[in-house]
Write a structure and sequence with these properties.
Layout: H1 6-20, H2 25-92, E1 103-104, E2 112-118, E3 132-138
């Protein structure tokens, strides 16, 4: 701040001694020291308040960023849950199933008769296929 060397301080002290006098100089020196101390404390408080405000603003920005991230994450999760619900709902709907047993009656000849039947197909077991059985009965 101020560039005051030792020699300049010595000149100031000699002038103060001549102007104020030796009787009042100690009292003036204490008053000047107290005033200087108050000014230093006041400047330190101002610096601390400025730093505190800066930290508070940074924390507010960080809080806002976190809040935005949480909202985005919640929205994403809700979308995924809705998609999963839709998928489960679509998968749970029964598809048209073959519930009747059908019998095929071919033309019979005198020598033999053929019976063909199909088994029921279940939608819950997609690996099951229709099994045809044929019996030849000789007359």
């Amino acid at each position: 701040m101020f560039d005051v060397s030792f020699s300049e301080l010595l000149v100031i002290a000699v002038v103060a001694l001549l102007v104020i006098g030796p009787e009042k100089l100690p009292k003036v020196a204490r008053t000047v020291g107290a005033f200087t101390g108050r000014m230093q404390r006041y400047m330190a408080q101002i610096k601390e308040e400025v730093n505190r405000e800066m930290r508070f603003e940074e924390l507010q920005k960080l809080q806002q960023e976190i809040k935005q991230t949480v909202e985005n994450t919640q929205e994403s999760i809700h979308q995924q849950v809705d998609e999963i619900k839709a998928t489960v709902t679509n998968a749970a709907k029964p598809k048209k199933a073959l519930s009747k047993t059908t019998t095929v009656k071919p033309k019979l000849t005198k020598a033999s008769s053929v019976k063909v039947s199909t088994s029921k197909i279940s939608t819950s077991k997609p690996k099951v296929s229709t099994v045809k059985r044929a019996k030849v009965v000789a007359k």
